[in-house]
Amino acid sequence: MTETTPRLRVAVGVDLKESLCELVERLEPRVELVRDHTLYHPMRGPADWSGDPAFTRTAEQQRAFDELVDSADALFGIPDVDPAALTRTVRANPRLRWVHATAAGGGGQVKAASLTNEELERVAFTTSAGVHGETLAEFALFGVLAGAKDLPRLQAQQSRREWSDRWEMRQLDEMTVLVVGLGGIGAAAARKFHALGATVLGTTRSGEPVEGVDRLVPIEELDAAAAEADAVVVTLPGTTATEGLLGESFFANVKPGAIVSNVGRGTVIDEDALLAALRDGRVSFAALDVFAVEPLPADSPLWSEPNVLVSPHTAALNSAEEIRIARLFAENARHLLDGEPLKNRVDTVEFY
Questions:
Q1: Do domains 8-130+318-337 and 133-310 have the same CATH topology?
Q2: Most buried of the four, 34, 283, 301, 337, by CB within 10 Å?
Q3: Catalytic positions, please?
Q4: For the chain, how big is the Rg over CA atoms in Å?
Q5: Which fold has domain 8-130+318-337?
Q6: E strands, the chain, where?
Q7: Which residues of the chain have pLDDT under 70?
Q8: Global pTM value
């Protein structure tokens, strides 16, 4: 490596394991990864990027942490996964040119930082979208199967030790599944449902074909497609454009007895409209890993709705997430150093 070889000084802003720090350096030797593991909120479990909230820095440690993140050309992780800390370091460090968020929905954190247009143009932001695709697609499949096999009835009968008459369960290979959003998660879900024999519809803006999707549906025709779907899988990010997209008109058109599985963002579904559809039978079951407000408030009726499965935004969590994000970061570092487009760059208008 010659002295003219470009280098990228990267500060680690979250608790990335030392073995993964070393992996990034091996995958992209032009990266100088600076870190101090004594300064991070320690992880309490796999991919716990925010870390233990009980950890507090001394004033001296906070100064050291700020100096660390302010010394770099790029950041692995939004510091402390805190939008306010991101705002501070963007303004304190004029050399900062790239920030990689560990969350797939990191655009929301960038939006919350309330940066100026000039700051959003100066610094490139990327997310970890795609690393959770297969795990979330599995939950989406699980949710649809739980509805098709009437998991609530099975659990209720088991709790009563009741051996009922037999009943017919729905089969995936006889169902039409509408995947709302064909990004990384949606594409993975489409492949899985297609492999099990379902007819797969998928919403699109681009019109580009996607493996496993039998028919593309323009997003403007979403409500009409609802009438064909035995199950609806939501994978869209939370943006101004997607907020409440599945609302009263969608559920008014939905095929009676449809199953809903949401692994995108909770704001995409109007929860009041979903509850009304559940209570009158238009929707027979909903498996929800995400909600408009998280944690889900204790007084939310979704907790007690018999045909709702509440999952605490945990479907994506997997110990392999950390190494996938490290590999993605190293690949994007190469792209940046070689002048190539960055993967998963945040749209700073819609922030996804």
A1: yes
A2: 283
A3: 265, 294, 313
A4: 22
A5: Rossmann fold (3.40.50)
A6: 8-12, 31-34, 74-76, 98-100, 124-126, 176-180, 199-204, 215-218, 231-234, 258-262, 283-288, 308-310
A7: 1-5
A8: 0.89
